[in-house]
User: Which sequence fits this backbone?
């Protein structure tokens, strides 16, 4: 069916509006990062009065951004790896085996996505405090505790999506591998995982993005020593001044890992999301 002229015009207008809505904030962020502080604090201009890259240098000394960057990499990387590994085994069990409580498990996993994260803040905090009092394991104010916190966000979606992706892989491939002498783990490693590569990449990107930009739990579960980037950006605002140009410069730098990862793995990410969502 051919697209009519009115519908084509409407589609173009909608896409143009969405493009402007997306590009303008990025443009303002980039231009603000190249302004001096007096220029930023004056009347708004669409282009810097004098282009300077000093904010990209000063942002590392105004706050310990490098330390926060390392903390975010460790926390987000650890949460991503653990989410992918655990989700693979859980999704494979859900997809390939019929066990008692399977429906309850999948329903519970999916239902956790219905609730906003703020509802889990106080319960998780109290659980971590009680664990510390009971067994002496410090979770509040540590990167390890923050990794566990982020697992509660990423795992439900990861398990649900990978289970749907595994369902789309014929079971005959597993049986053929077992006939050749492979056990269930061998079939998973040699047959299922290579076929599920787009879904695994999508899960990894989702887990990394969720952990990288999270603010609420990071502001409560961390201290000055293990603060992450999302929380550290707030320190550019002091009682006497707000370094808007450095905030914009730091925001651009913070966005680079996620943007690069998404651009490199875009096709696999989209393929994994669409396949896992419709199975």
Assistant:
């Amino acid at each position: 069916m051919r697209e009519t002229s009115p519908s084509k015009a409407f589609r173009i207008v909608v896409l143009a509006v969405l493009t402007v809505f997306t590009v303008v904030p990025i443009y303002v962020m980039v231009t603000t990062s190249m302004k001096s502080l007096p220029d930023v604090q004056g009347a708004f201009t669409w282009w810097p009065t004098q282009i300077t890259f000093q904010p990209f240098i000063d942002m590392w000394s105004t706050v310990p951004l490098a330390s926060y960057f390392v903390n975010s990499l460790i926390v987000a990387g650890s949460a991503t790896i653990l989410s992918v590994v655990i989700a693979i085994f859980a999704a494979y069990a859900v997809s390939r085996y019929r066990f008692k409580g399977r429906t309850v498990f999948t329903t519970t996993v999916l239902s956790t996505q219905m609730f906003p994260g703020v509802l889990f803040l106080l319960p998780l905090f109290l659980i971590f405090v009680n664990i510390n009092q009971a067994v002496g394991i410090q979770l509040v104010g540590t990167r390890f505790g923050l990794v566990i916190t982020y697992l509660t966000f990423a795992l439900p979606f990861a398990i649900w999506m990978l289970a749907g992706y595994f369902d789309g892989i014929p079971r005959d491939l597993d049986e053929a591998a077992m006939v050749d002498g492979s056990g269930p783990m061998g079939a998973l490693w040699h047959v299922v995982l290579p076929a599920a590569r787009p879904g695994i990449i999508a899960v990894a990107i989702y887990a990394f993005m969720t952990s990288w930009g999270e603010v609420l739990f990071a502001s409560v579960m961390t201290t000055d020593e293990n603060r992450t980037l999302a929380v550290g950006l707030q320190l550019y605002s002091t009682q006497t001044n707000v370094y808007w140009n450095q905030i914009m410069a730091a925001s651009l730098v913070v966005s680079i890992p996620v943007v690069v990862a998404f651009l490199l793995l875009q096709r696999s990410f989209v393929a994994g999301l669409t396949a896992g969502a419709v199975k």
